[in-house]
Amino acid sequence: MLTKDLMRYRRRGDYLKPIFIDTGDAKLLEFATELLAVYGDTGGKALTRGEIDELADPIVKGLSDLCLAKGLYKLITDRCEFAQPEHFDYSAMRKKVFLRASQLLRQQNCSFEKLAGHMNDDELQRFAAGDIFADLPENERLSRFRPLFPRELLERYNTAQVQALLMYAAELDIKVGAENAAELRRLFKYLKFFRLLAKIEEIKSPVGCKDMNFVRLQVSGPASMLDSLRKYGMQLAVFFPAVCALPRWSIRAEIKLRDRKHRLVLDEKSGLVSHYRNFSAYVPEEVMMFHRLFKQKVKDWKIVGEAPFIKNGREIFFPDLSFEHESGKVIHLELFHRWHRGELAKRLVFCNNDPTCPLLIGVDRSLLKSGYDNELQNDSFFSEKGFLFRDFPGVDRVRKLLNSLVG
């Protein structure tokens, strides 16, 4: 993700216009190729952060647009994983090594090169023989780099400019084409995975216009949150590539920068390219683990792959999971996290008005910190078909509730 100092945009009145680069520009493609080569063949040696920065520095400074160069380099480093050093108390161990070394160097028959072999215990000897400054950030060694092509890097840079602005959004209004149900399901799943709050509505096309139906998502932005603002902003930013992956989309956002409100308006004509191609790569680990454990532990229920859209007037909501019993009965599960208090209240009203709705409701305990526990305790629907969880539900709790709904 790009930091605030690497954002590039122009102001036109109240509007912000991100500065995009030409992803087919030969000079930029050459620069990206050279920069990515730093992470290529290193002869089997795992480079340190410091060594990588040293190799990349002249390349970055060689581009006339230094802000652009630093932005591209930041996106590359975000794809790196560095190995953690061994579990030593490095500061204390260094002190012991230096103290022992000062004693040994006073002896005429001990050279500096032989110090490691003269430490007075095995652990200290092993520590002294290695990198005694391995705990410093510049000495962390690269353990994994997720490669990408030069053009992909340039495409990600353009998308990252929008993502950086969305970190400061007070609200985000999204319209996407409604003609492909599978694409909508995928979009709503991303919305769920990133635990975002949205009001979803159908927008019918005018009479006589074909293929003009839309779905509108009104997503609360991080600037409207009183707590965990930065975390929510990050979730909103990482959701955006799921939007621009669609053939028809548009966004309108209110951005708060330097105590001023601005507008951001974009659509599919902006030419942004999403890198969200492999859906399974973005499924959270806790979701995959739940699927695995449910399949292992529960034999009379199965998770249904295609959860339906459930309508509440003009609004639509989308369950997190759907389960099918061996008898054919289908029950849905919707989860509400710390930012979802308003949506939870609306869902409980809907369910109490239709108590036969085949829906279970799970509420993250972090939401109770907002003082909502009394309302839940007194809600008739939740007392029968609701439960609390921490971060993600347990399989046994869900199975117990599912079984209570089949006779």
From the structure above, extract its key features:
single chain; 407 residues; alpha+beta; Alpha-Beta Plaits; 4 domains; 7-stranded antiparallel sheet; 5-stranded mixed sheet; 13 helices
The DSSP helix count reads 13
The CATH topology of the largest domain corresponds to Trna Endonuclease, Chain: A, domain 1
Low-confidence region ranges: none
Structural class: alpha+beta
- Shape descriptor: globular
| Percentage beta strand | 15-25%
Total of domains: 4
Distance between the termini: 50 Å
From the alpha carbons, calculate the radius of gyration and give it in angstroms.
27 Å
Q: State the order of secondary-structure elements, H for helix, E for strand.
A: EEHHHEHHEHEHEEHEEHEEEEEHEHHEH
CATH architecture of the largest domain: 3-Layer(aba) Sandwich
Number-wise, the strands total 16
Query: Sheet bearing the most strands, described?
Result: 7 strands, antiparallel
Q: Helix content range of the residues, please?
A: 25-40%
The strands making up the biggest β-sheet line up spatially as 9-8-5-7-6-12-11
The CATH class label of the largest domain is Alpha Beta
- The average pLDDT is 85
